[in-house]
Amino acid sequence: MSKLVYSSKINKIRTFALILIFAGIILMYIGILFKKTEWLMLTFFVLGVISVILSVVIYLWIGMLSLKAVPIICPTCEKPTKMLGRVDACMHCKQPLTLDKDLEGLEFDERYNKRTYLKEVKKSKEQNIKE
Ligand SMILES: [Zn+2]
C-alpha cells in the first residue's frame, strides 16, 4: 500500500544543502536583529557561518558523488540523469531506475552497469555460445 515515492538521491542531498544555505543566511540575519546583545548576535552569526560552511562541504561532496554516479538517459522522460547505487530515481520525472539484473531488458546500456554485472553478462553470453 505505502509504495515509496523515489526521489533522486543527488537531488535530495542538493535540496538539503540549499536549505542549509538559506538557514545560514536567516540565522545571520537574526544575528543582525540582535545587534544590541553582542553575545546573541555572535551566536547567531557563528551558527549561520557553520551552516553555510556545512552546505559548501555538502556541495563538494555531491560533486564527488556525481563523478561516481552513473550517467544514463531516463527511459521515461528521455533526459540525461545520474544514478547513485543500484536503485535510484530520475532527477527530472522521479521515475524509479535500477541497475539490478532482475530488471534487465529495460532500456539500460550494458556499458553503464557495474563490472561484476558485466562479467555475468559476458559469462552467460559465453555459455549461450557453448550451448
Ligand atoms: Zn526521467
Automatic annotation (TrEMBL):
Principal subcellular localization: membrane
Keywords: Cell membrane, Membrane, Transmembrane, Transmembrane helix
Keyword Nucleotidyltransferase listed: no
Bilayer topology annotation: Multi-pass membrane protein
Keyword hit for Membrane: yes
Record-linked Pfam families: DUF2614
Membrane-crossing segments per the record: 12-34, 40-62
Similarity annotation: Belongs to the UPF0295 family.
Protein name in UniProt: UPF0295 protein CQU01_15420
Organism: Cerasibacillus quisquiliarum
